[in-house]
Amino acid sequence: MELKLPSPVLLTVIIILGLVSINGCNCKIVQFIFGDSLSDVGNNNRLPRSLAKANLPWYGIDFGKGLPNGRFCNGRTVADIIGDEMGLPRPPPFLDPSLTEDMVLENGVNYASGGGGILNETGTYFIQRFSLYKQIELFQGTQELVRKKIGREAADKFFRESRYVVALGSNDFINNFLMPVYSDSWKYNDEGFVAYLTETLQAQLQLLHRLGARQLMVFGLGPMGCIPLQRVLSSSGDCQDRANKLAVSFNEAVSSMLNELSGNLLNATFKFGDAYDVVNDVISNPYKYGFNNSDSPCCSFGNIRPALTCIPASTLCTDRSKYVFWDEYHPTDKANEIVASELIKKFGFLRVNQTEAPSPSPVPGPALAPAPEG
Ligand SMILES: *[C@@H]1O[C@H](CO)[C@@H](O)[C@H](O)[C@H]1NC(C)=O
Ligand SMILES: *[C@@H]1O[C@H](CO)[C@@H](O)[C@H](O)[C@H]1NC(C)=O
Ligand SMILES: *[C@@H]1O[C@H](CO)[C@@H](O)[C@H](O)[C@H]1NC(C)=O
Ligand SMILES: *[C@@H]1O[C@H](CO)[C@@H](O)[C@H](O)[C@H]1NC(C)=O
């Protein structure tokens, strides 16, 4: 009887293929996004008790089919626009019920949550939200699943080559420090609070580095004292000077912390960028940038200000591309475009070349001119 044994060559091929499929990865470069409502793409809509949701019209009116999708905007977030420019897929929200390991490998994950802050205690007013520590905890869970799926070595490589975005901080001021109901507002003075926030963020970024993050961007704060919600706090309707000064100090402190950190962390490129000056100029000279209004929300409810959120009964401005602000807190798609292009300049990055990824996989060419559609 003749035994048909596989030839040694074939056996080797089979073993190698086997190893590759167990321990290898056709990994693309994807993004993991940590943030607040400026980057949320649907997590809060799935937090049953959250009071900060973008689940009603007219949110999303200029995105895809024009339906609410979880973004606190009429169109795209800054992270959407930057990711598109880099040629990276838009990551689904962590709470997307259809999220699988394959989707993570293909698109990354977005953990951003409206109301979330750098500090755990920020935004308690919204009842339910993911603070940055919680988002990192969820990311660790994602890492565990990916390791089970493709093996530790391939997973380590995948997470090392991924891109990371960390964009929080405004809620730590607007929905914490600047509100007297929060203990942080009387425990710290302005300088002390910025230092506390920066130290906390530093520990969080070091943790992300230990978890494998190597290429990370931190978005700084804009002139948050000029969001419509802050303006209505003063009888004159002017920007809140103290809030703006806090944003500037935060940006300065985080920028120098990141410079130092990026030099100390092995193999890490951690970058800081803010669009404070540009947005400040847009707000002071809206016409110069093609806007017609930079002090009130496009979506508003008659004279009732501040309206907490844009709702179906609200009225919309006639031309959304002429407004800097979409609702009381959040910029429009058009304003986000300006922020994104400023950040792209500051970060100085190039398009991600997917063919340089761990192993080539067919990657659909990203559209050169990203449309507002999802
Ligand atoms: C913040 O929350 C995380 C859980 O999400 C917890 O592990 C951590 O100890 C908390 N940190 C502080 C300072 O309360
Ligand atoms: C840094 O990169 C080198 C070369 O790729 C590698 O050997 C080393 O393990 C890396 N260190 C860390 C902490 O990532
Ligand atoms: C700008 O806004 C004013 C009212 O604030 C309006 O009368 C004018 O038509 C607007 N211009 C454009 C180009 O939208
Ligand atoms: C991407 O990288 C591959 C391999 O290094 C190279 O052949 C290709 O020209 C690059 N493509 C672009 C657009 O830079």
Automatic annotation (TrEMBL):
Keywords: Hydrolase, Lipid degradation, Lipid metabolism. Residues 355-374 are annotated as: Disordered. GO terms for molecular function: hydrolase activity, acting on ester bonds. InterPro entries: GDSL, GDSL_Est/Lipase, SGNH_hydro_sf, SGNH_plant_lipase-like. It holds the Pfam family Lipase_GDSL. The keyword Chaperone does not apply. Gene3D superfamilies: SGNH hydrolase (3.40.50.1110). CDD domains: SGNH_plant_lipase_like (cd01837). GO terms for biological process: lipid catabolic process. Residues 359-374 have a biased composition (Pro residues). It comes from the Eukaryota. Belongs to the 'GDSL' lipolytic enzyme family. This is Uncharacterized protein. It comes from Punica granatum. The lineage of its organism: Eukaryota, Viridiplantae, Streptophyta, Embryophyta, Tracheophyta.
